[in-house]
Amino acid sequence: MSDERQIEVLEEESAGEKTEVLHLPARLPANSRAAAAQRLEERPEKPAVGVFYEAPHLMTHPHGWRLRRHYKRKNLHRSNLRYALAEKIGTQWTLMPLAVISLAVVIVLTSVLVGVAGLVSATEERFGQQVVTLADILPKDNLKMYDASGDLIYQMTSEGLQTTVPLSQISIHLQHAEIAIEDQNFWNNPGYDITGIVRAALDDLTHGRIVSGGSTITQQLIKNAIVGNKDTIIRKLQEIILAPQVTRYYTKQQILSMYLNTVYYGEQAYGAEAAAFTYFGLKDTPTKKAAAQLDIAQSAMLAGIPSSPIARDPFINWPAAFQRAKDVLHQMRIQGYINAQQERAAIVEMQQPNFLHRGVVKNSPDAPHFINYALSELAQVLHVKVPQLARSGLSVHTTLDLALQKQVFNIAKQQIQKMAAHHMSDAAVVVMDPHTGAIRTLIGNIHPNDPNTGQFDVATQGYRQPGSAFKPFIYATAFAQGISPGMPVYDGPLTIQMCCGLPPYTPHNYDMSYHGLITYRYALQNSFNIPAVKLLMQVGVDKALKTAETMGITNYVGTPNYTMVLGTLGVHLLDMTAAYAVFDNDGVRVPPHAVNTVTDSQGHLIYRFVPQGKRVISRQVAFVVTNVLSDNNNRTYEFGKCSALYLYSNTQQQCYAGNPGVVRPAAAKTGTSENFMDNWTVGYTPDTVVGVWVGNDDNSPMLNVIGVDGAGPIWHDTMLLVEKGKPVKQFPAPPPGVVKKTVSYQGLTTTDWYIVHNGE
Predict the structure, then answer these.
(1) Residue 7 and residue 342: Cα distance in Å, rounded?
(2) Of 251, 308, 277, whose CA–CA distance to 142 is shortest?
(3) Fewest Cβ atoms nearer than 10 Å: which of 108, 146, 419, 461?
(4) Contact at 8 Å (CB) between 271 and 256?
(5) Rounded to an integer, what distance in angstroms lies between the CA atom of residue 276 and that of residue 279?
(6) Cα distance between residue 725 and residue 707, in whole Å
(7) Are 429 and 443 within 8 A, CB to CB?
(8) What angle is formed at CA 89 by the lines to CA 83 and CA 92, rounded to 5 degrees?
(9) Is the distance from CB of 429 to CB of 370 less than 8 angstroms?
(10) Are 622 and 580 within 8 A, CB to CB?
(11) In 3-state terms, the chain is what percent helix, strand and coil (to 5)?
(12) What residues are paired with 738 via a beta bridge?
């Protein structure tokens, strides 16, 4: 029965029926307290303990299964914990290193990429401009010097031999050989060749020695010209970075040309031209350069050298060089440049005894002092030091007349041999063009091969006393002040009181006699000392010295005083010759020079000498001095009418017999220093000036040799040699401002030139 109603069943037998009577509870308001209390009574009561239920109680699990299940679950939980712990530890020890390694790889790769990017940027920033100007920064050719006729007289090889030639003038066999052994994909690669590096490594491993290199020709060019040859990974990477840029800027032909003209072939030979000469003695012909004459065998030999110039130098290590050459030939054959027959023929040629022929640079032995002077002059012009000229790539065309130099050298040598009994052992000679300053001949001494004295250049380095050859500078100063060569002067005893505690100075003439009243012309032509000292006292030491300096005596040793009129200052022969050239050039000084033009290896003009004369004395003074020094009659007293100062063409005997032959006008002055230590003769014709010194290297005195006997014959023969075949030319006519006057003084009447106007 439900809790909502109560049912009572009453059996009423009287009616014989069951009657169900429904007693409904009283309905209370839902929210009333009574209803709430009534609802509390409606909760079912908890069954009493021990109440028996009629449903059957069957044992579905064996006894103790709950305990066993408890322990099983406990053990399973414990096992699961242990497995989880083991899996956790295993995962940590397995994945953690992988994670660390992966992180490290990422870091390393990132660092490498950053480093490479930085290296690329730094390399381009540092060397980018050099790539653009690669052709200009390549090692330059060695300096070459030529005489006035264009003949090679000197190569400066202190830093190697190199001559740049066009690619068309380099043997095609050498081109093929270099490409075959160094860079077989040269024509196609971007400047580097990764497959070539791998192939080279495999070849080297296969042969057990270095057979081919991994660097391309472009990389080697970059190494030699830009990044240097340090054996580092950085340098190799820089080559690879720059190689594509070089390939973009230059054609393959240009790259190959630059490489073949500068690569080092050992034996101080740079480039194909120098190597062809050094190893095989090949020389240029009118139609072919030496490099163009190389055959297959010679090309293979040369191509094998650059990878190891010392180890594979055929002069030093023939077996290694020969083996390398065979490797080159093999590569040329398998790459199709030559066939097997040509390969065998080349190997046979290499084994011939005369295959190698060493070429030796032979600089001209006839002009060593001129060459040194020209180098010094060039260094001053270019504002560099002489050693820096070695690989300047310059071609220097000089003023030297080599044929004349040789002949003058022989003239001087013969005179020295002739005068050996007089203890005269050396000579120096300078031949100049007075109008341009060009030095045609410069002989510093006649012992160029002497290891002790041969290198010393008396003409440009030695300070020697010129004796009476210095007098024309004093006379020129006096003539400029209005003194005429026809004016009289008394040649007699003279004593000069010196200052500064010096003893009195008493000059004497060479002949130790006095000549009374004479003209200055006569005094100068016969080298009388006393009239010259009187003249110096009149014009002043400072003014006379200034005249000498402005005319070209730029360096001297000694103290200028009254004795300098006797030539006591030590001067250079070249300076004296250049100063006399002023008299010959109407008073205009053109500095002496040995270098005419300078060009670079491409033929571009770098320097050209342009004569720029400067007037240092007037035309009138130059004329008067020349007129006096060319007056052979007035020097007859001291030298005779057929002395070496007189340019006659016949023999001296014929001259004295009245048959001098062709006579060329010439002005000259001799000089002899004290104790016969130095002899000088300096003089000129209208187009040539020659200065000669003779003496001894150790300054020891000669035996009674004066200028006309020692230096004079060399001067005479040199002048005739220079003038040979030329028409006879007279000195210029008197310029305006010079007039002839006749003067009488104490019974001496003379007619001579007077300067009434100094002119320019």
Answers:
(1) 137
(2) 277
(3) 108
(4) no
(5) 6
(6) 27
(7) yes
(8) 140
(9) no
(10) no
(11) 45, 15, 40
(12) 755
Alpha-carbon Rg for the chain, nearest whole angstrom, is 55
pLDDT confidence bin for 302, thresholds 50/70/90 = very high
The C-alpha angle 641, 645, 647, rounded to 5 degrees, equals: 85
Whole-Å CA distances, 478 to 34, 569, 576, 587:
168, 20, 19, 15
Distance, first Cα to last Cα, the chain: 166
pLDDT tens for each residue of 599-630: 998 889 999 999 999 999 999 999 999 999 99
Phi/psi at 521 (nearest 5 deg)? -60, -50
Residue type, 760: E
Beta-bridge partners for 683: 668, 690
Partners of residue 743 on adjacent β-strands: 750
Q: What 3-state class would DSSP assign to 9? A: strand
Q: CB–CB of 670/681 below 8 Å?
A: yes
Please write down the HEC assignment for all residues of 291-359. Answer: HHHCCHHHHHHHHCCCCCCCCCCCCCCHHHHHHHHHHHHHHHHHCCCCCHHHHHHHHHHHCCCCCCCCC
CA distance 300 to 334: 14
Residue 32: count other Cβ atoms within 10 Å of its Cβ: 10
d(CA 586, CA 347): 70
Least confident stretch, 211-225, 285-299, 427-441, 591-605: 211-225
DSSP one-letter code for 348: H
Assess contact for 531 and 475: CB atoms under 8 A: no
The answer to whether the beta carbons of residues 444 and 461 sit under 8 Å apart is yes
